[in-house]
Design goal:
With 255 residues, this protein is an alpha+beta fold. The protein has helices spanning 2-21, 26-54, 58-73, 87-93, 127-145, 200-212, 225-236; strands spanning 100-106, 114-120, 149-154, 168-173, 189-194, 250-252. The longest helix has 29 residues, at 26-54. The protein is elongated and about 160 Å long.
Length: 255
């Protein structure tokens, strides 16, 4: 019994000694309290810096977002355009000048409405403005009159309609089916115009010529041109060599 008690006492002594060896002194405890917060602060700073380094920047995020938006809305397919209003026709229409309708001719047949308009455009004076005016007029008049085909001719004068001095000649086939309207050929526009305006004197000569031609017919029913030339020369007070008709050079628009 004595040996057992001695053994227990010995074990308690060893346990007390071991506990005493691991208990901080007051100085050690104080130092531990000061150092512990410092290590915690250092750890927090390290985690923050590490997080910044491995996380994407705002610009990177923005770049990824922009790329995603572009990928969503971009397409490799071309944007569809109205085939009846190609770029070249559209750009020329920007040169359109004011115009006046001087005569209308309907050449329709059953089931297909076709109309020809003769117009004047005093402010048009070159290839672009002649074509642009006639193109815009054809589009406007086709929509307003609901025709299948609109034909517009710019004349140098209201007194020379149909005499062949066309400053511009434009045909707009709304459905792309030609004159007959039976087969689609995709040719919506046909256009030609003069590069330069005719000389005003020649236009005036032509006006007088066609107005008075019926009064200068010979026995064969033909125009007595020498007499008519002399008449115009006297009327305008110009030499007979200056009595000349207009010359209009037309250039076809390539589409």
């Amino acid at each position: 019994m004595s040996n057992k008690n001695d053994h227990i006492s010995e074990m308690e002594a060893k346990l007390a000694k071991l506990k005493a060896e691991h208990v901080d002194t007051p100085a050690q405890a104080k130092a531990r309290k000061l150092i512990k917060p410092l290590f915690i602060s250092i750890g927090v700073m390290f985690l923050a810096i590490f997080g910044i380094l491995i996380s994407p920047t705002d610009s990177e995020n923005q770049g990824k977002t922009t790329a995603a938006v572009k990928a969503k809305y971009s397409t490799s397919e071309p944007i569809s355009q109205n085939p009846a209003w190609p770029d070249k026709i559209s750009s020329l229409s920007a040169h359109a000048k004011p115009y006046s309708i001087i005569e209308v001719s309907d050449y329709s047949f059953a089931g297909r409405k076709r109309v020809k308009w003769f117009i004047t455009a005093p402010d048009a004076n070159n290839y672009e403005t002649y074509l642009g005016t006639a193109i815009q007029a054809a589009k406007d008049l086709a929509q307003k009159s609901r025709v299948s085909q609109a034909n517009v001719i710019i004349e140098p004068s209201s007194k020379l309609v149909g005499m062949g001095y066309n400053l511009a000649l434009v045909t707009f086939t709304v459905d792309g089916k030609g004159n007959a309207g039976e087969v689609f050929d995709g040719e919506y526009w046909q256009a030609a115009a003069s590069n330069t305006p005719p000389e005003p004197l020649r236009v005036e000569v032509a006006e007088i010529w066609y107005k008075n031609r019926a009064n200068f017919q010979n026995a064969n029913g033909l125009t007595d041109e020498p007499r008519l030339v002399k008449f115009i020369s006297t009327k305008l007070g110009i030499p007979e060599s200056k009595v000349n008709m207009p010359w209009v050079d037309q250039v076809k628009l390539a589409l």
